[in-house]
């Protein structure tokens, strides 16, 4: 088992990575305030891992109820969040009860936001079961639900007490979701870690084959990057925004196509190619650089173009993104491969040109 | 104008108390990050003060839109909260836009919770327009909405940047609401400030007559007490719970009668008498002490008995209160007049006896 620490003073917490973690209740017990917990999961992950987690907790004397949500980004909304509150209140959970989110990014975001709001905050543990959530969304305390007018618009910064990334859970992950997770892994290399990018270029096929050591290495190095950024800028006033490479374009794709049609990682991959194209137009990346990024996404089986969506629709959707400040879109672009920057001066025409270059 | 500071490190903020504050946009301007704000108010307060506030802001170059909510505790729910999110998103408000809550406790709680959640947190200013919100709910960062199964169950600790208590707004406050505000003022004297209680005993009629100097004094001393407690214990791990004298009984009254039937301050007054009665049964207060508390509430025109509600119903409603820990109700009681304590050992029979003693 590998362990990393997210250094946030009194709110610091460990990330544990390895196989068989879900079987071991003693990994969780020290982080609970009482012998009571509630597991939030969904109807895909629940049948696979809920009982394993409940048995592990029972073996250390912890009684854990469960709320099973419908699966999918389309359910990342208030009515579904309220299912959690209903259960917590019906079971008379106290504010010292711990909420455990067992699932992918949607479950983690919703479980975390429910924990942030229930009685103004209850303790919370992330048990991510997808590659994407293990390397990104479970770390750093961003929680949210979607609003019909924008993704992740209603939420909170709320840190977990522990993140438990059990590589066993990736055995049941559909190929398409494994690939989507690779998009966020590649992102860390692109924005701030060239040696990791080179490692990914050398080891991508081992990841696609789900080799344990390769997965553990990729997850650890991704989480180490994320933990460093979050420790320096918890509430995204500066550096943390760099983690959003490809995300402003990507959110427009997700919202424009209807949540769930494109996986988040797929939209991020296509969005990253738009950001790379814009970076090339600004003279920061060469043609070869763009091709280097593209070929890694292609090897990972990820889209390198956006969907059928008009340029105007992109601009409209991007204008309501959280990264707008003073009416100006703040885009994350690549100054070079391995170094991202915030750029607020890209004109509408340049953005449109990049989108069109990377559209069907 | 009187000014107090809530000392919370980087999140410290001033409370300004006086007449004519709503007319003066320059009091607000230094606390805005941009020249854009959104005012959240309701359909009772809006017609009285919204235009005044918007003009004051316009005079310092600030454009402020408005969301007008339906009035009342019955609307302190998710669908109403979502009206704020709809407007913020439709107007493409950024996370640097400031939300200004103009109204009583419900508007402040909802506006504050909306600000806490919108894009994971936007700046927020409290402009309380009722006595109760000026002395209590606008200070300290507790925000929330109700859930059908419990009051204030979904919320956040989220501090404002500024609290502006304009005594002018009390001129239009109905008598019943003025009296409800007195309940929370009297509470500060009872739990930790005997000299203030004595001042209230000497000046209650001046408050009921709405004398400016008396109101300013009562508001300042109440806020000073609240600010001290909040600075010492922002998220209610200890001392802050003492502010809930009468509230666990009171919440049961509010929920049991249907939100809005009893004003919060009225329920707190009756609940405080139950807490006083239980304190007497424990041998902490004398009969004379209880009568002293009672006579102040009577002079303030506040109820000193609960409504027609069975003792079992009280216990049931109290069991889902946020003050339950390890299955044990933690009640705030009076060790003596002027000093509250947390008591977790009161048995069900003793609690029932106190409720019955103070029921019709």
Automatic annotation (TrEMBL), chains A, B:
This protein's name: 3-dehydroquinate synthase
Gene3D superfamilies given in the database record: 3.40.50.1970, Dehydroquinate synthase-like - alpha domain (1.20.1090.10)
Pfam families recorded: DHQ_synthase (PF01761), DHQS_C (PF24621)
Keyword NAD: yes
Domain 3-dehydroquinate synthase N-terminal per the UniProt entry, residue ranges: 68-179
Source organism of the structure: Azoarcus taiwanensis
Cellular component GO terms, alphabetical: cytoplasm
Reactions the enzyme catalyzes: 7-phospho-2-dehydro-3-deoxy-D-arabino-heptonate = 3-dehydroquinate + phosphate
Amino-acid positions noted as binding Zn(2+) in the UniProt annotation, renumbered to this chain: 184, 247, 264
GO molecular function: 3-dehydroquinate synthase activity; metal ion binding; nucleotide binding
Role, per record: Catalyzes the conversion of 3-deoxy-D-arabino-heptulosonate 7-phosphate (DAHP) to dehydroquinate (DHQ).
Name of the gene this protein is made from: aroB
Phylogenetic placement of the source organism: Bacteria, Pseudomonadati, Pseudomonadota, Betaproteobacteria, Rhodocyclales
Family: Belongs to the sugar phosphate cyclases superfamily. Dehydroquinate synthase family.
Keyword annotations from UniProtKB, A to Z: Amino-acid biosynthesis, Aromatic amino acid biosynthesis, Cobalt, Cytoplasm, Lyase, Metal-binding, NAD, Nucleotide-binding, Zinc
EC number: 4.2.3.4
PANTHER family: 3-DEHYDROQUINATE SYNTHASE, 3-DEHYDROQUINATE SYNTHASE, CHLOROPLASTIC
Cofactor note: Binds 1 divalent metal cation per subunit. Can use either Co(2+) or Zn(2+).
GO biological process per UniProt: amino acid biosynthetic process; aromatic amino acid family biosynthetic process; chorismate biosynthetic process
Top EC category: lyase
Coiled coil is among the record's keywords: no
UniProt domain 3-dehydroquinate synthase C-terminal: residue ranges: 181-324
Annotated binding of NAD(+), by residue: 71-76, 105-109, 129-130, 142, 151, 169-172
